[in-house]
Automatic annotation (TrEMBL):
Pfam families: Glyoxalase. Residues 11-125 form the Glyoxalase/fosfomycin resistance/dioxygenase domain. It comes from Microbacterium keratanolyticum. InterPro entries: Glyas_Bleomycin-R_OHBP_Dase, Glyas_Fos-R_dOase_dom, PhnB-like. It comes from the Bacteria. This is VOC family protein.
Length: 131
């Protein structure tokens, strides 16, 4: 076990969302359809399981008919000091495209930089670094 890994359920757009995260973070993306997993509780081309392995690891799938899809309240995924400042700034900017900047990435009175963004899929990210 390498640690906590988010597993997100999307409302029918898991493939698109996971490809977006691969574009932002890089890494290797594996996608498997309902048909490949022999699931019959949804359309065969829906994503039964997807995994992004790279500097940011996360998994996701299309929500089943009785499952909730992503809606984050009172939480965010923190990428604090997980890469060089330039990379974290790029990630913040890319996640903000067609999303919402909640708090701009900026220098704080205590010397660190951080900011928050909700991406186009409703996932909230806290990104920051210290120089």
């Amino acid at each position: 076990m390498t640690g906590l890994m988010p597993y997100l359920s999307f409302p029918g757009n898991a493939g698109e969302a996971l490809e977006f995260y691969q574009d932002v973070f890089g890494g290797q993306l594996s996608l498997f359809t309902y048909e490949q997993f022999q699931r019959t509780d949804g359309p065969p081309d829906m994503i039964a399981h997807g995994e992004l392995a790279g500097p940011v690891r996360l998994c996701g799938s299309d929500a089943g008919p009785d499952d909730d899809a992503v809606h984050m309240l009172g939480m965010s995924f923190a990428l604090l000091g997980t890469a060089e400042p330039q990379i974290l700034t790029e990630w913040f900017d890319q996640l903000a495209e067609d999303g919402t900047v909640i708090d701009p990435l900026q220098k704080r009175p205590w010397g660190a930089h951080d900011g928050q963004v909700r991406d186009r899929y409703g996932v909230r990210w806290l990104i920051g670094y210290e120089r």
